[in-house]
Amino acid sequence: MTTPVSCRMIELLAGGAGWTVTVTGPAGMITDPDEAGHYRRTLHGWAHGPHGPHGPHGPHGPHDSLVRIRPQTVAGSRPAHAEAAR
Fold first, then answer.
1. How many CB atoms lie within 10 A of CB 11?
2. Distance of alpha carbon 43 from its chain centroid, rounded?
């Protein structure tokens, strides 16, 4: 079963530079153990989640689910650099 979702990724750098990308499309859980293992090995930072103030497992426990989004739309932008806006 798939559910339509949107996911936004943002990278902001010093001085106001950076980017944002939003992907929208149907999503579903990755349940095949071999496929899940592949993503955990190759997409380490994405497949294991960020290490925020709650440690490597977040406030709700470990990130043990993987979701695949099949993009139907992709939109992005780059904020104006702080110096260029003056």
1. 10
2. 11
